[in-house]
Design a protein that fits this description.
By secondary structure, the chain is of the alpha/beta class. It has one domain: Aldolase class I (TIM Barrel), CATH 3.20.20. Helix content is 31%, strand content 17%. The chain is built from eleven helices and 14 strands. The strands form four sheets. Strands 3-4-5-10-11-12-13-14 form an eight-stranded parallel barrel, surrounded by five helices. The radius of gyration is 19 Å and the shape is globular. 51% of the residues are buried.
Length: 358
Amino acid sequence: MSTIHSLFTPVQIGALRLPNRIMMAPLTRCRAEGAHVPTPLMAEYYAQRASAGLIVAEATMVLEGNSSFWREPGIYSEEQVAGWRMVTDAVHGAGGHIFLQLWHGGRSCHPLLNDGRQPVAPSALAIQGDEVHTPEGKKPYVLPRALRDDELPGIIEGFRLAAVRAQKAGFDGVEIHGANGYLLDEFLRDGTNRREGPYGGPVANRARLLLEATDAAIGVWGAGRVGVRISPLNSYNDMRDSDPVGLTRHVAAELSKRQVGYLHLMRGDFFGVQKGDVVTAARQAFAGNLVGNMGYTPAEAGAAMDAGTLQMVAFGHHYVSNPDLVGRIQRGIPLVEPNPATFYSPGPAGYTDYPAAD
């Protein structure tokens, strides 16, 4: 019978030797200020959670003018680099390791958040069935503009420069955000990518932008310090794909060739609409560190590691309310449930005021 012991053994991610196999999943918390600049409050928040084997910091804009959450951070200005340096210094001072998640919001962005700019996407298809938070309250998503092929090198350069700035800000590596219905995921899945040409049609073409962004980051960091996150089943942000298992297999195989530090796989759908065994497909095609995410219990994660299916597990919402999550799991202390009302609210309430167990 499996135990959770495997969670507390070291794991190698590239040149990094991590002390345990528990990852803090990237969590958008909307505590940046001004021109999307990280704050001392954010440094405190991440340092509180430094016992994670690896922290992946929240979705961070690689290019100006692509805000989707109003108060999310960026990594395209020197002021932002300095703000993130406060965060990485605090995490390292507490003995932790931290990657930055590089992100482009794509069609989830809104003109009211971006000086009137129309959002961009692979195809001119708006998000349906949801609304976005803006300074004027909740608003419907707008119709995005389809990007031209000749604009895509500029997107890739944005990811490359963001990787350079993340290095300058003191991060230990970067994660490419290819999940949850943002730009790279919009290109990846055929429900949102209806284009023709080199970035549309078969999965090899649809995956091209994600892999080019990954290659750009590898050129800066080396493969071992780059992770990639995908969510082939998740219908969040009005997403779908006709063959999520095949998509997973293709992307995993391509990332395996590149020997990236890890593949971070969201195994399910927030809304339970789309189903399939993407974990088996990823494990069969990817030879490196596979990180599982979405609904894992410590016991299930330990069993998956004992079986060799996973090398790490990423916990999300429980990291909001349990800064000492690693210690709580190790000591069998019940986890505190978070308050969703404070997920995206400004200030320390529901952010840095959750106490450790001791």
